[in-house]
Amino acid sequence: MVIAVAAAANAQSARDIRGPSPLLAIENEPPPRLIVDAPLPGPLAAGRVFIQYRAENMRILPVFGAGALDVSPRIGHVHITVDGAPWHFVDASGETIILVGLAPGAHEVLVELADPTHRVVTRQRVRFVVPAPAPGQP
């Protein structure tokens, strides 16, 4: 039994949303792009920083080393630096960045898209203000 599903004329395909299949090599891959959103306002109002990001033309995966440079579609991870610290942490999950415990006031998070050898290919900065807690709240 075959069931046909009619799609709306303006519906996007899976490829439109998810990008190329990771099962096939891509010739002449376009350069990677990094899209970083401002922190979500609800958690930020409570002093928690939730930053969503995504990469285009690079899959975020926990694979490292020079041997991974030849993988197609390309893979990488992000480096995250808070308030210009001399160190950063690495995230290879592709999930929302969550920061807690920042003091009230202005902050900056640097998100860098890096290849498997940690070479940064692009970056974005996010600036935001953590509000002071309301009176009577910790």
CATH topology: Immunoglobulin-like
CATH class: Mainly Beta
What is the assigned CATH homologous superfamily?
Immunoglobulins
What's the total number of strands? Answer: 9
Number of domain modules = 1
Q: What is the strand content?
A: 25-35%
Number of helices: 2
Q: What integer value in Å does the Rg equal?
A: 19 Å
User: SSE order in H/E notation?
Assistant: HEHEEEEEEEE
CATH architecture: Sandwich
Instruction: Identify low-pLDDT runs.
Output: none
Keywords:
globular, Immunoglobulin-like, mainly beta, 5-stranded mixed beta sheet, 138 residues
In short:
By secondary structure, the chain is mainly beta. It has helices at 14-18, 41-45; strands spanning 33-36, 49-51, 53-56, 59-60, 75-82, 89-91, 97-99, 105-114, 120-130. It has one domain: Immunoglobulin-like (Sandwich).
Would you spell out the secondary-structure blueprint of this structure?
Elements: H1 14-18, E1 33-36, H2 41-45, E2 49-51, E3 53-56, E4 59-60, E5 75-82, E6 89-91, E7 97-99, E8 105-114, E9 120-130
Parallel strand pairs: 4-5
Antiparallel strand pairs: 1-3, 2-7, 5-6, 5-8, 8-9
Task: Kindly describe this structure.
This protein has 138 residues and is mainly beta. It has one domain: Immunoglobulins (Immunoglobulin-like). The protein contains two helices and nine strands, in the order αβαββββββββ. Strands 4, 5, 6, 8 and 9 form a five-stranded mixed β-sheet that branches. Strand 5 and strand 6 form a beta hairpin. The longest helix has 5 residues. The protein is globular. The relative contact order is 0.22. The model has no long low-confidence stretch (mean pLDDT 89).
